[in-house]
Write a structure and sequence with these properties.
The protein is an alpha+beta fold and 218 residues long. It has helices at residues 32-44, 83-101, 118-129, 131-139, 156-160, 166-217, and strands at 2-9, 15-20, 53-58, 61-68, 71-78, 152-155. Strands 2-1-5-4-3-6 form a 6-stranded mixed β-sheet, sandwiched between helices. The mean pLDDT is 78. It holds the Pfam family Longin.
Length: 218
């Protein structure tokens, strides 16, 4: 389920539009306002080279972020809401937002200059709450959105408490992925060498025993 949506400009983190579910409240007592502030913090840590798609965990929910045409689209969802559906929802918002406002985006000078876009956001939230509509939307996904398995997933504390930019977090994730891949390669190599060593020792023992037997027999 989509709980909250915020749209902001990447260049300066200015919020352009938003839609908040007033009933958001978790077991710790956090309200929709706190999650809205977290979304604003994410916007302030964007850069021109931030990853185009990022998921940020904020228990018990998760933010999904899509950057398109220098605009960031953020949605807060329940963790069991399919990630593909979340990015399909953001993609639909991005297409309509650019179609409606286009050149006006960079001229906006005050927060929530396009707050009336909430009407379209509410419409899409209702559509994606319908499982049948979600399946239809999935059929319209662009190729580059079909594989969401490699999207960077981080934690909101890494973004807010440590003041990390999404660019730096993406670099760290890429480095970890590279190290993991190298580790797998090294593990395969070591396993192969171990197997060859075992074979060599076995052959050596057999040869040695054959020599000893030959000496005693003859």
């Amino acid at each position: 389920m989509v709980l909250m949506t915020m749209i902001g400009r990447v260049a300066d983190g200015l919020p352009l539009a938003a839609s908040v579910h007033n009933d958001i409240r978790d077991d710790s007592g956090r309200s929709g306002t706190e999650y809205q502030n977290q979304a604003k913090s994410i916007l302030r840590r964007l850069a021109s080279n931030s990853p185009s798609k990022t998921s940020i965990e904020t228990d018990p929910y998760i933010f999904h972020c899509l950057i398109d045409h220098d605009v960031c689209y953020i949605t807060l969802c329940e963790k069991n809401f399919p990630r593909k559906n979340a990015y399909a929802y953001l993609e639909d918002l991005a297409q309509e937002f650019i179609a409606q406002y286009g050149q006006k985006i960079q001229l906006a000078a005050r927060p929530y200059s396009f707050i009336e876009f909430d009407n379209y956001i509410q419409k899409m939230k209702k559509q994606y709450a319908d499982s049948r509509t979600s399946r239809e939307a999935m059929g319209r996904l662009r190729t580059d959105l079909r594989d969401v398995q490699n999207i960077m997933v981080t934690n909101i504390q890494d973004v807010i408490a440590r003041g990390e930019t999404l660019e730096n977090l993406d670099k760290k994730a890429s480095n970890l992925a590279s190290l993991s891949q190298q580790y797998r390669k090294d593990a395969v190599y070591l396993n192969r060498m171990s197997s060859l060593t075992k074979v060599g020792l076995t052959v050596g023992v057999i040869v040695l025993l054959s020599i000893i037997a030959y000496v005693f027999i003859f």
